[in-house]
Amino acid sequence: MKYKIAVLAGDGIGPEIVAQARKVTDAIVAKFGHELEYTEALVGAVAIDEVGNPYPDETHELCMNSDAVLFGAIGHPRFDNDPSAKVRPEQGLLAMRKKLGLYANLRPVNTFKSLIHKSPLKTELVDGADFMCIRELTGGIYFGRPQGRTEDGQTAYDTCVYSADEIERIVRLGFEYAGKRRKKLTIVDKANVLATSRLWREVSQRIEPEFPDIEVEYMFVDNAAMQLITWPKRFDVMVTENMFGDILTDEASVISGSMGMLPSASIGVHTSVFEPIHGSYPQAAGKNIANPCATVLSAAMMFEYAFGLMKEGALIREAVDKSLEAGVVTEDIADGKKAYSTSEVGDWLENYIQNA
Ligand SMILES: NC(=O)c1ccc[n+]([C@@H]2O[C@H](COP(=O)([O-])OP(=O)(O)OC[C@H]3O[C@@H](n4cnc5c(N)ncnc54)[C@H](O)[C@@H]3O)[C@@H](O)[C@H]2O)c1
Ligand SMILES: CC(C)[C@H](C(=O)O)[C@@H](O)C(=O)O
Ligand SMILES: [Mg+2]
């Protein structure tokens, strides 16, 4: 089969980590006899610099006409440090998610045997932790309007909005995923304070009887933030709104051992996007030191979720596991031992797949 992939490398470490994922995907298709057609397009700060728009129309057209999108990261300190900038790289990412209808962001969190000692959490707490965070991605405070400032500029406001339909489709997905896993669903909200969260609970409780074999629990987000690192193994599938999911999954990366290890798949109405959960890590840009595994594992999710090619995805995961076992790792997880460069890790993974 031939698959069309839009490649949106973006800013900072984006191009370096996407290059490693491409080595890996090329090795996979060569081995299994598929064909990939990559087309690169602009997104983020580089797109602002080149065409003045962080998600240009041509990029959107390309994504719409692709079987999957492989995404690096966006963001640049020159915008992070200038709150007055009107056009911002992050708007490109949000526009892409909205226009492609990517309402569900699947962020699997698990441990890797060779990295368990890397987590600042106790080994017995993290060993065996394995859950899926399903983050709502096109609603909530990220997209609610009005957003802005009063005329005198001295007061600012954001609006959190969720409709019952938006809540239902993501919560249903949560129930369905829990059904395929250990049958436990944790719905995370702040229903003791927020009206949107109370609607989440109401809608979730209405759906609950349709899934009698799923054990459901409701948890306030502040409690969830604490439970996540004190007892991560209690979670199977977690479903939550946009901003809570963003924050909780960065926190969850300490379970795996590094931000550079957590992949994601954004799925929904049109095509799907595969992207690491981390950002453009500007301090590492151009230094060939960033961990490419989150992006490589996102490519594994692409084979599985977008193309239904499970063996291909599994071989990528195996390659990553073996590289960790062999100690061919970047500095974030090297633990004082020899650190390999981003491209050396990519080469090692490519070679492993070629010889598997
Ligand atoms: N999806 C995205 O494109 C995305 C996600 C988050 C942040 N951002 C943007 O990225 C920029 C930087 O934001 P930030 O510093 O808060 O978040 P970040 O995720 O870029 O980096 C935070 C920290 O995580 C670690 N880290 C991240 N990626 C890593 C990797 N591949 N290998 C090793 N360590 C890694 C580093 O210690 C880094 O200092 C901002 O402009 C932000 O808006 C973009
Ligand atoms: C860059 C930012 C808009 C983005 C988000 O908050 O969704 C990022 O943190 C992520 O997790 O993909
Ligand atoms: Mg984030």
Strand percentage, roughly?
A: 15-25%
Bound molecules: nicotinamide-adenine-dinucleotide, 3-isopropylmalic acid, magnesium ion
Q: How many structurally independent domains?
A: 2
CATH class of the largest domain: Alpha Beta
Largest sheet: 10 strands, mixed
CATH topology of the largest domain: Isopropylmalate Dehydrogenase
Spatial strand arrangement across the major sheet? 2-1-3-12-11-4-5-10-8-9
Order of helices and strands: EHEHHEHHEHEEEHEHEHEHEEHHH
| Weakly predicted, low-confidence segments | none
Number of helices: 13
- What is the share of helical residues? 40-55%
What sort of overall outline do the alpha carbons produce when their principal axes are compared? globular
Rg, nearest Å? 20 Å
What is the number of beta strands?
A: 12
On the 0 to 100 scale, the average pLDDT is 97
Keywords: Amino-acid biosynthesis, Branched-chain amino acid biosynthesis, Cytoplasm, Leucine biosynthesis, Magnesium, Manganese, Metal-binding, NAD, Oxidoreductase
Subcellular location: Cytoplasm
GO molecular function, one term: 3-isopropylmalate dehydrogenase activity
Binding site for substrate: 97, 107, 135, 222
